[in-house]
Amino acid sequence: MRQLEAPGCRRRLGTRAGLPRRIAHRAAEAVVCDASQMLAGNIGKAGDLVQDFIDYAGTTAAAMEAARDAGFDRAVREALDAATEKARDMSRAS
Questions:
Q1: pLDDT at position 5, please?
Q2: CA angle in degrees (0–180, nearest 5) for 43-54-42
Q3: DSSP per residue over 22-90, as a string?
Q4: CA 82, 87, 93, 94: dihedral to nearest 10 degrees?
Q5: What is the pTM of this model?
Q6: Low-confidence spans in the chain with pLDDT less than 50
Q7: Is the dihedral of CA 90, 40, 50, 65 positive or negative?
Q8: For residue 21, what pLDDT is reported?
């Protein structure tokens, strides 16, 4: 199984964008950790939150649009489908 390597992603982000490593690390942390905390207990408002970021048209919107253009929506759907199927398999096995 392939391991996700956040430190490697941060280094590439910093190198390609010309950001100092410290700033690249904080940007990655903000996207992964801070954004998820904004949705904690409010998952039903996720679409509204995403639209707010897109309407603001800042750096987060640019990242979200680039991720979508690169197939993010499809990747998330496939990941959720795989997780659902695995949960079904596990429940049948127990």
A1: 55
A2: 10
A3: HHHHHHHHIIIIIHHHHHTT-GGGHHHHHHHHHHHTSHHHHHHHHHHHTTHHHHHHHHHHHHHHHHHHH
A4: 170
A5: 0.63
A6: 1
A7: negative
A8: 80
